[in-house]
Design goal:
The structure holds three protein chains of three kinds. Chain B is mostly helical. Chain B has helices at 2-35, 42-49, 51-84, 87-102, 105-116, 121-129, 142-167, 170-178, 183-211, 215-221, 228-238, 242-270. Chain B is globular and about 70 Å long. By secondary structure, chain C is an all-alpha fold. Chain C has two domains: 1-46, no CATH class; 58-226 and 233-261, MetI-like (MetI-like fold, Orthogonal Bundle). Classes of the chains: A alpha+beta, B mainly alpha, C mainly alpha. The interface between B and C is large, with 91 and 85 residues.
Chain lengths: 354, 275, 262
């Protein structure tokens, strides 16, 4: 059961508003891909297009050799797990799981056997005769999962399936989902707004904004080498500092910015650096130093974040967040210089700034 | 306790009104059936021994039941279309169903008198196109009462069932589709079973409404098609037979309460959303 | 949901709506027809029958009575119903469960039985005047609307904002008027309108509580229809429909149309 999913130039509208803009995405066979973004970014729209609950205004959807684009929803054979589980309230747990098998014309005994096996796998055999109303959130989630898996679909899709669970259960369930998906080698789409969830569960993640994919990569790449400012901010590179190269010396780069910013960076740590670029750093990538080289800054509020202090800092490059060691707390109003720590920095093209 | 007292004080005037002017008078009416005759059940025995009264009771039950079934079928199919219509259409259709509901019973029954009466539109039309035997007697028949009653209650049924259908979450229906259920299968296996409790509630409203109606049987049934409501009025205000009137009242209350309590209990048991 | 409705189903629904609207259109036609009775095909148009309504003192009087009774009983029902709805929501735990059931009784007990019982016990038994009994009857009739509709609005009301107001120094009674009431405004308007319309249209209770001296419009219509069959009743019906339209327009303006469906 390993089939790739190919979305090609999908565009979709709600009334006159364009909610998906020329989106293309290749999901490899057996791969789990997350669609990650804030609400309204088009991730759920994409999922509903693939499920067949919405019609694209342009573009195609292929699952393996099959063209799904104009196929009716009930003929698509996709396992869907809904945000609110969408269990049938009038059917027992077993009948919920057997529902899809019944539509496929399986005989009663066979249905019961298969549903029973699947309930075993998700550990719910004891609750098979209950109605969904009598289950806890985590149990409902398992029923929803079993119901989608039992039809052995070539594609599984999850629409924020964990958002209604408490934090501990959420971590537990995502491991479970990943294990089941791996075991069946089923291609899967996972929609979420939770970065940690997406990064921990996925082979690749598509970060979406305003109906487009801004970057589609392995989580490790997204985390350390965002392709543009939007993704950089999304993964925590909160400081964006525009700089211009003034001198290159065997990988050692000197760069200047507005208002006397003067930095030394290494291409060995950060990869190739163009003449015009943006230095993106996480708060931990911008350290308060005693020297007079770096970004001149006036410190504001100090907050304690466990391993270090964070400082609100006013600089010629605008408002930045820097960090300082616990051993040397600074007071608001102090004037210092900020220097970059290469592990928590990355380089963006000037064009990618928007 | 202080809070409890505050609550009681705020609810006191309305509670007093309902107890003094509804519970007591209605209880007195029902109680009268047990002491007004010779023995405690003499009035009921007298009611049931009269062929005419048995006919009135039976006719009322029959008309109410037919009205309920017809309204249910018409209301359910229409409500299904309304609930699935595009949003703009849907609100227009709902308004069109609310309008007759807010227009009084007298007006709506009178409309059928204009249509079905001896000099009514229907007979005028039939005479005009030259149908043999026209004009016909259409009013003061069981059929005319049923048509007007169905007309009266279909909007109520539509609105009740639209409410029920809209309470079925979209994602449950989408889940059925994603699992391979065709529209017909989705309807039979998901939508209909989830709507049943609401259908029962709507049916109870229509049945009790028909069973206790007055204006419609009065205008379209007349003395020929007397129902419990018109019979109660006739006993109390025309014949001044208050023993008869209290008996009719008690039977109406008993039937109404039995239907409401029994059916809501069944509806509750069938409703998976509340368990 | 992407699947289309079956055309036969749509056609059926269209027919049902014709069935719902047709008779009302016919009443309007009858009210405007210039022949003394209703003919097919229709003859000329006239507003004569509307003038006739106001020439007939019985209609004029009962119209006024109906308006007065509806206004007074609706106001009474709201006056006692709003605090009741508040108490039932705010002090839910302290009050017994049967109390809220009590306010369902006016809906549960057949109106016509209530009307007869009021005649028997209050008018004849206690000897209250006709008008008072009529108003008591109508107040009982519409009280469930006040209690239930406003309860429904209060159910979604967050009582902690009331506590917030009190903690900021607002006295409890003032808080009720400045904080609670504005937030259930929609419920109060809806309750008023439903109650008023119900009272104006009521037959079954008024039936027993009116006499030769005092009557309501629907009762007068019934009495008139039994004796005469003329288009005056159609014109009165049209007036009542106009009232309904006005009410619906008011609801649309203040609450939005979705409110009507509830």
């Amino acid at each position: 059961m390993t089939t790739p999913l190919i979305l090609c130039n999908l565009t979709a509208h709600y009334g006159a508003t364009k909610v998906l803009d020329d989106l293309s995405l290749d999901v490899g066979a057996g791969e789990l891909v997350s669609l990650l973004g804030a609400s309204g970014c088009g991730k759920t729209t994409t999922l509903r297009l693939v499920a067949g609950f919405l019609q694209p205004t342009a573009g195609t959807i292929h699952l393996g050799e099959t063209d799904l684009t104009r196929l009716q929803a009930h003929k698509r054979n996709i396992g869907l797990v809904f945000q609110n589980y969408a269990l049938f309230p009038h059917l027992t747990v077993r009948d919920n799981v057997a529902f899809g098998l019944k539509q496929r014309g399986l005989a009663g005994a066979e249905r019961t056997r298969k549903a029973g096996e699947m309930l075993d796998r998700v550990g719910l055999s004891a609750l098979a005769e209950r109605l969904p109303g009598a289950l806890s959130g985590g149990q409902r989630q398992r029923v929803a999962l079993a119901r989608a898996l039992v039809i052995e679909p070539p594609l599984l899709m999850f629409d924020e399936p964990l958002s209604n669970l408490d934090a501990r259960l959420r971590v537990e369930m995502r491991v479970e989902i990943r294990e089941l998906q791996r075991a069946n080698r089923t291609t899967a789409i996972f929609v979420t707004h939770d970065q940690e969830e997406a990064f921990s569960i996925s082979d690749r993640v598509a970060i979406m904004e305003a109906g487009r994919i801004r970057q589609f990569d392995r989580p490790e790449t997204l985390y350390s080498r965002p392709a543009n400012a939007f993704v950089a901010r999304f993964v925590g590179f909160e400081n964006l500092i525009p700089l211009t190269v003034t001198a290159r010396d065997a990988g050692r780069i000197s760069a200047e910015g507005e208002g006397g910013i003067d930095m030394t960076l290494s291409e060995e740590d950060l990869g190739p650096i163009p003449d015009q670029f943006i230095l993106a750093t996480r708060p931990d990538g911008l350290r308060v130093s005693n020297g007079d080289h770096g970004i001149p800054a006036r410190l504001g509020l100090r907050t304690y974040v466990g391993r270090a202090y964070h400082y609100q800092a006013e600089t010629p490059a605008g408002h930045l967040i820097a960090s300082g060691t616990l051993g040397q707390p600074r007071d608001g109003g102090e004037t210092v210089c900020l220097v970059a720590e290469p592990e928590q920095c990355c380089i963006l093209d000037h064009e990618g700034a928007s | 306790m202080v809070h409890g007292l505050k609550g009681w004080m705020m609810a006191a005037p309305a509670t007093a009104l309902v107890v003094l002017c509804l519970v007591l008078p209605v209880s007195a009416t029902i109680a009268a059936t047990f002491y007004a005759g010779g023995g405690p059940f003499d009035l009921y025995a007298a009611f049931l021994s009269s062929g005419f009264r048995r006919t009135v009771l039976w006719r009322t039950l029959e008309i109410s039941l037919i009205t309920t079934v017809l309204s249910l079928v018409i209301g359910f199919l229409t409500a299904y279309v309304v609930s699935r219509a595009p949003p703009r259409w849907r609100s227009a259709l709902i308004i069109l169903a609310v309008f007759p509901l807010l227009t009084g019973v007298v007006v709506r029954s009178f409309a059928w008198l204009i249509i079905l009466g001896r000099n009514g539109i229907m007979n005028n039309l039939l005479v005009w196109i030259g149908v043999d035997g026209a004009p016909f007697t259409m009013v003061y028949t069981q059929g005319s009462v049923i048509v007007a009653m169905v007309y009266l209650f279909v909007p109520l049924m539509i609105l009740t069932i639209v409410g029920v259908l809209e309470n079925i979450p979209d994602d449950v229906i989408e889940a059925a589709q994603s699992l391979g259920a065709t529209p017909v299968q989705t309807f039979r296996q998901v939508i209909f079973p989830l709507a049943v409790p609401g259908l029962i509630v709507g049916s109870v409203l229509v049945f009790t409404g028909s069973f206790t109606s007055f204006a419609t049987p009065q205008l379209l049934g007349g003395d020929q098609q007397m129902m419990m409501g018109t019979f109660l009025y006739q006993r109390a205000m025309v014949a001044f037979d208050w023993d008869g009137a209290v008996t009719v009242s008690a039977i109406m209350v008993a039937v109404t309460l039995a239907v409401v309590i029994g059916m809501t209990r069944i509806a509750k048991r069938l409703n998976p959303m509340t368990t | 949901m992407t699947d289309r409705l079956h055309p036969a189903l749509i056609a059926f629904a269209v027919l049902v709506y014709f069935f719902l609207m047709g008779p009302l259109v016919i009443v309007i036609g009858a009210a405007l027809s210039d022949t003394g009775y209703l003919t097919f095909p229709p003859q000329g148009l006239t507003l004569h029958w509307f003038e006739r309504i106001f020439e007939m003192s019985a209609f004029r009087r009962t119209m006024v009575t109906s308006f007065q009774v509806a206004t007074v009983s609706t106001c009474c029902a709201l006056l006692i119903g709003i605090p009741t709805a508040y108490a039932l929501n705010r002090y839910r735990v302290q009050l017994p469960g049967w109390l809220s059931t009590l306010f369902v009784l006016p809906v549960l007990i057949p109106e016509i039985v209530l009307g007869f019982s009021l005649l028997r016990s209050i008018q004849v038994g206690v000897g209250l005047p006709v008008v008072s009994t009529l108003i008591i009857g109508h107040t009982l009739l519409v009280l469930p609307y006040a209690v239930r509709v406003i309860s429904a609005s209060l159910a979604s009301f967050d009582f902690s904002i009331e506590e917030a107001a009190v903690s900021l120094g607002s006295p409890p009674i003032k808080t009720f008027f400045t904080i609670v009431l504005p937030n259930v405004r929609a419920g109060v308007i809806a309750a008023f309108i439903l109650a008023f319309i119900t009272s104006i249209n009521d037959v079954s209770i008024s039936l027993f509580l009116t006499g030769p001296g005092i009557s309501t419009l629907p009762i007068q219509i019934l009495a008139h229809v039994e004796q005469f069959f003329d288009p005056v009743i159609a014109s009165v019906s049209v007036l009542l429909m106009v009232l309904t339209v006005i009410v619906m327009a008011v609801v649309e303006r203040t609450l939005g149309l979705t409110f009507l469906a509830k």
